[in-house]
Specification:
The complex is a heterodimer of chains A (about 300) and B (about 525).
Chain A lengths: L2 E12 L2 E12 L3 E5 L6 H8 L7 E6 L8 H5 L2 E4 L11 H11 L5 H10 L13 H13 L5 E5 L7 H16 L3 E6 L2 H7 L2 E6 L2 E7 H4 L4 E8 L12 E7 L2 E7 L3 H11 L1 E7 L3 H12 L1
Helix pairs in contact in A: 3-5
Chain B lengths: L1 H4 L3 H11 L3 H23 L3 H13 L1 H7 L8 H28 L1 H5 L2 H6 L7 H27 L4 H28 L3 H24 L13 H8 L10 H21 L21 H40 L1 H10 L1 H37 L3 H5 L5 H34 L3 H13 L2 H17 L6 H19 L3 H6 L13 H24 L5
Helix pairs in contact in B: 2-9, 3-6, 3-9, 5-11, 6-9, 6-10, 6-11, 6-12, 9-10, 10-11, 10-12, 10-13, 11-14, 14-16, 14-18, 15-16, 16-18, 16-19, 16-20, 16-21, 18-19, 18-20, 20-21, 20-23
Classes of the chains: A alpha/beta (about 300), B mainly alpha (about 525).
The complex binds adenosine-5'-diphosphate (ADP) and magnesium ion.
Chain lengths: ~300, ~525
């Protein structure tokens, strides 16, 4: 597999702020890659460097085999971008903006454009100043998704969309995946990344702290277990990897490192299990633990 | 009711003062400082009653002076001279101040969505408008009082000093009201400012046209202009304070109407309704987009200067007439070359002023780049195959070539009317087009400074307005203020050859300087980060 985006050791400072601090990021061709981090982590900065809008202080960035700062125009023919802050021209209608951005990228698929307008329930005849944040985002999304490009770079594209439109967005991204496009999706909406992404990179304070498939990242998480046993629990308290144990009579509740689950279950079974509920690790939890640890 | 509608005004006033803590002191310092230095300069120049009286005769016989500054009512004291030399401009500048401040804290805030945020807290419906009016109106009054004190500090008559200061303040108040109203009209702060600015321009022209031809002209026109009212106060002469009552009434009326409109419309919307537009577009190049964004301003400016040209063109002949009718002037006029030379001098002054005004258009066209950048609208464009060079060029062309169109319109207006009146269209029209277009290289230099700032020091792009103002003040007031020659030489318009003696040399090197500045701007922007 080839890399659509490969970034290593990227540093970017704004005066005293170190927005990116030795950042690595690797996105393979054809995958939907989640770029996850809290506000101010450096997601938008990374994306702007990839688009040649900002110049990195040091480190290397390659995009579709080219240098994002030098080969700007040639690379931009092959990608579409949805910014985090979409601001439209007050006097242009949404439809005019979609067509403008499409033409600048070298044309868009008419039929796809109409279909997307319908799916997103967007009226293209309204003037830019009258759109809400969500609708402005839809304009940028329709423009990007109806372009014929290899790579989509989306910076928190759903932050203004309601849940219904969020579902439409997810369908659209799945369509793009099937067409073999590469997608870099920055987000702090975990459910979205969980539902859509093949791989995820987690970034904090301008540094990539973790990257891999969702399955790869599970070793960092804990599963919550609550169970009713036949007799009093034994041995759980001393077991490696078990945390926050609460025992009341025959009931127990605890959390266990996901890779120690096996041992904990064996221990439970030895006491006889009546009922058992377990909650799988969510990305949310994984996320929290990374940022909790830092404090 | 009104009480609750105004809740939170105090907080908003403090917020506005904090946001403007640099801008407002600069305006105050500027308007008070020029009052003081003009007085000092005129005191040196016209020490004797005779010299003042002579100035009075020549000033009131010179249409260019009359159009630009209005009549000189009273030469018995230095104060009368100050009121004549500086009164109209003082009014123009304070009007711009009031306009920018009010729009910035009303419509611009609303457009940015911040009013919505604030309205959701404990802030009355009328509070944002009230706060803006208090800040702009209060600053106007403060400037007026300080101007009066500056004049009293120069040992001028206190009544006259307050008549002058309060006249300035009254223009500030009227335009506080005008902008409070235009802010209600459109959803776009740029449009609000354009309407208010257009009103300022038109009413300035009313008084210019009313004053230009002296007694024989349509002097009643000056009564339709807030700046005209300040002339009718006749500071240091009759000191007719009652005229200020008109300004005060206009202020109260405009603010009242605006406050009424506020209760009649939704936050974020304007009175002028927005309609649906086309579902698809035909724009497909950066230039196409720039044309769409800039054409309104280009057409508006061209039409405005065409009208200004027509007005000045129509009074030019009267300039010659007036000196012939005035025996006291006969000798002086013969010395400078007769009535024809007076008309030529009139055109030289007028075309220079038109050039200075056009430089405002050029800078505004260049600064569009910066506002596109800071509002995040440049980003999606530059993420397409559009090159940075192409994007900057798409707007810069409106400054460079657009400036030529605007100046040519002015020349066309001058030439057409003056040509028709003198029955010599064939020679006059090309002459006037030429006289207007020679101003272009100097205007390009100012645009070059703006583009260089944009490319190299984007955070300081706003300094371009200071450059425009300084160039305006130096060129118009420099000689009267007796500034050092090197300061006068810094202003590009100083070097523009005066009509009718057009020589190519200065035009070429001014163009060269502009080219270097533009190249620096382009190169700077290609190498820098996009910033907000
Ligand atoms: N133009 C800028 N000037 C100064 N600081 C900036 C600028 N852009 C971003 N930053 C800072 O860099 C950090 C990363 O910002 P950003 O990339 O926007 O984060 P994210 O998109 O993940 O929310 C933040 O601390 C932000 O304040
Ligand atoms: Mg961001």
């Amino acid at each position: 597999m080839t890399s659509a985006i490969s970034v290593s050791g990227l540093v970017k400072t704004f005066g005293p702020t170190r927005a990116l601090d030795d950042l690595d990021l690797n996105v393979q061709t054809g995958e939907v890659h989640g770029f996850l981090g809290p506000n101010g982590a450096g997601k938008s900065t990374t994306i702007r460097i990839l688009l040649g809008l900002l110049r990195a202080d040091s480190g290397t960035a390659r995009l579709l085999g080219g240098d994002p700062w030098k080969d700007t125009a040639a690379l931009h023919r092959r990608l579409a971008y949805v910014p985090g802050d979409v601001n439209l021209w007050p006097n242009l209608t949404g439809g005019e903006v979609i067509d403008l951005l499409g033409r600048l990228r070298g044309g868009l698929r008419k039929q796809r454009r109409e279909e997307l307008l319908e799916r997103f329930e967007l009226d293209p005849r309204k003037k830019g100043r009258t759109y809400s944040k969500g609708n402005r985002q839809k304009v940028a999304l329709v423009a990007a998704l109806s372009s014929d490009v290899e790579l989509l770079i989306l910076d928190e594209p759903t932050s203004g969309l309601d849940p219904l439109m969020e579902a439409v967005f997810q369908d659209c991204i799945n369509d793009e995946r099937e067409r073999g496009r590469t997608v870099l999706l920055s987000s702090h909406i975990l459910a979205e990344v969980e539902a859509l992404c093949d791989r995820v990179s987690i970034i904090r304070n301008g540094h990539c702290v973790e990257t891999g498939t969702l399955a790869d990242l599970r070793h960092l998480t804990r599963t919550s277990i609550s169970a009713e046993l036949a007799g009093p629990p034994n041995g759980l308290a001393n077991l490696d990897g078990v945390h926050d144990l609460v025992a009341e009579g025959n009931r127990v509740k605890f959390e266990v490192d996901s890779d120690k689950l096996d041992l904990a279950l064996k221990q439970l079974v030895s006491s006889g299990v009546r009922t058992l509920t377990s909650q799988p690790p969510t990305l949310e939890e994984l996320f929290l633990r990374h940022y909790e640890d830092a404090k | 009711m009104i009480g609750t509608a105004l809740i939170g005004t105090g907080h908003l006033v403090r917020l506005a003062l904090r946001r403007d803590r640099i801008l407002l002191p600069i305006w105050i310092l500027f308007l008070v400082g020029i009052t003081y230095s003009t007085t000092t300069a005129l005191e040196e120049l016209y020490k004797t009653p005779e010299s003042r009286a002579l100035l009075g005769v020549t000033a009131n016989a010179n249409s260019a002076f009359l159009a630009m500054l209005g009549p000189l009512h009273d030469t018995s004291s230095l104060g009368g001279l100050v009121a004549w030399r500086w009164g109209v401009f003082s009014g123009l500048f304070i009007a711009i101040m009031a306009m920018l401040v009010v729009t910035r804290h009303t419509r611009a805030e609303e457009e940015a969505g911040r009013t919505e945020l604030i309205s959701a807290t404990v802030v009355g419906r009328h509070a944002p408008l009230a706060a803006a009016v208090i800040v702009a109106g209060g600053t106007s009054l403060l400037i007026g009082v300080l101007q009066a004190l500056a004049l009293i500090g120069k040992d001028l008559d206190a009544t006259g000093a307050f008549a002058f200061g309060l006249s300035t303040a009254s223009v500030g108040l009227v335009f506080t009201g005008v902008s409070a109203f235009t802010a209600q009209l459109s959803e776009n702060s740029r449009v609000s400012n354009a309407i208010a600015g257009g009103f300022l321009g038109v009413t300035y022209l009313f008084r210019a046209a009313g004053d230009a031809a002296g007694e024989s002209g349509p002097q009643w026109l000056t009564w339709f202009s807030p700046i005209g009212w300040t002339e009718h106060v006749r500071s240091f002469g009759d000191d007719r304070f009652w005229v200020l009552g008109i300004s005060l009434a206009a202020f109260v009326l405009l603010v009242g109407v605006s406050a009424y409109v506020v209760t009649r419309r939704d936050v974020g919307l304007g009175l002028l309704a927005t309609r649906l537009g086309p579902a698809g577009g035909t724009i497909g190049t950066p230039f196409g987009l720039a044309w769409r964004l800039q054409k309104g301003s280009l057409i508006g400016w061209s039409l405005a200067l065409l009208v200004v040209g027509t007005i000045y063109g129509s009074v030019a002949q009267a300039v010659g007439q007036m000196v012939q009718d005035n025996p006291a002037l006969g000798q002086i006029v013969q010395q400078i070359g007769g009535a024809d030379a007076m008309v030529d001098a009139f055109f030289a002054t007028i075309t220079q002023m038109l050039g200075l005004i056009t430089s405002i258009y050029l800078v505004q066209a260049v600064l569009r780049l910066r506002s596109e950048e800071t509002s995040f609208r440049a980003e999606p464009l530059l993420a397409t195959p559009v090159s940075r060079w192409g994007w900057v060029a798409s707007h810069a062309v409106f400054a460079l070539a657009g400036g030529a169109v605007v100046l040519a319109s002015a020349g066309l207006g001058l030439g057409l009317v003056h040509g028709l009146r003198t029955d010599d269209l064939g020679t006059v029209l090309p002459q006037m087009l030429g006289a207007a277009l020679v101003q272009l290289p100097a205007a390009w230099v100012i645009a070059g400074v703006a583009l260089a700032l944009f490319g190299l020091f984007p955070q300081f792009t706003g300094v371009s307005w200071a450059v425009v103002s300084v160039s305006l003040v130096i060129t118009l007031l420099g000689p009267a203020l007796q500034l050092d020659q090197w300061i006068i030489d810094v202003a590009p318009f100083t070097h523009v050859p005066k009509y009718p003696d057009i020589v190519a040399g200065p035009l070429l090197w001014l163009t060269g300087v502009a080219a270097v500045l533009l190249a620096a701007g382009f190169a700077g922007f290609r190498r820098r980060d996009l910033t907000t």
